[in-house]
Design a protein that fits this description.
eight-stranded mixed beta sheet, alpha/beta, 12 helices, two-stranded antiparallel sheet, 395 residues, globular, Rossmann fold
Length: 395
Amino acid sequence: MSVISPKIRGALCVNANPQGCSQNVQYQIDTCERAMAAYTLPDIIPKTVLIIGGSAGYGLASRIVSQVFFKAQTISVVFEKEPSAHKTGSAGWYNNFAVNEFAVEQGNLDIAINADAFQASTKQQVIDVLKQRGLQVDLLVYSVAAPRRSVPENNTEVVYQSVIKPIDQAFTGQTYDINKGQLQAFAIDAASAQEIQHTIKVMGGEDWQLWVQALQNAAVLAADFQTVAFSYLGGDVTRAIYHDGTLGRAKEDLEKCCENINGLLAQQTAQRRATMPPAKVAVLKAIVTQSSAAIPSLSVYISALYKVMKEQGNHEDCIAQIIRLFTTGLYPPGALTCNIDKAYRLRLDEFELAAATQAEVKLLVQNIQPGDIEGVVDFKSFKQDFLQLFGFAWG
């Protein structure tokens, strides 16, 4: 068998190692199984979980937590590249295979529908599967990070392209080139009004709302249905490129759509409504994902953040964050213990945004010099986590 080496192009690895992807999934399964010892199942648990974007990152972690903790039936909408005679498949393709193998071993249902989540035909395909199997959705997890979205308008397909740009003024900074192992300066012009609107159209909450509407109209929502979409706020270091930029505008739209969804579901009865509304936004911490690696300057910030939080002993990786979301926010064994700052918003970024943590991270970022990157922040962990997303660097 030939050795597969990572092929990195910019901020993306264009191939994957199947064995390593399996190890990635197994690591998350093992982490869940250890965490279960400290968790008591509540009276209401999800039996059927639908994950939109469940082949990587927080979506994949949600799929695994649902399988391990609740023995739930999972249906995941993914958009992955299958292998060919000359190229490996995408990492998500192999992740899907590994999760399905685990589900079969446990006697659970796991279906990965490889299709564009934005399309109405994909929503209908999921509804057809649910009806054919007599399933109703207890939990919908929306975890889509996409560069573009095709929407039918006036008898034609209009393609909206998202951009990662600041608003009102240009931004300059440094980012970590994973392939070269060095810092690089960059400059980004301010987004145009059209670019802002396109990013909202792709990365905002409209499609999440359309999914809930489609499922509700098809009568495939369970009585205790709830849904969650993932978001990020960040602190001052990332503010210009994220919170105050095009992505931040998209996240604002996500929250508006969350309120709309709660309006749609207002007539649906559920035992947990006394605690929180059925639609929620979970604000998570910064981690290394295929999406975050592509955001300029975030590699520097995350590398500094990892160094600080590991020294403090409160660093959480992707699976740890989702375990905490499910066990303290979505399905707590007793009273909800997750931090809440809005009626519908769960906060799991409190350790990242602690004033002392942010002050230390900011100081590290300011002190980074091009020739001394390994000594100031934790680029080594950033690169390892990045490679492991694609099945490499697992030992």
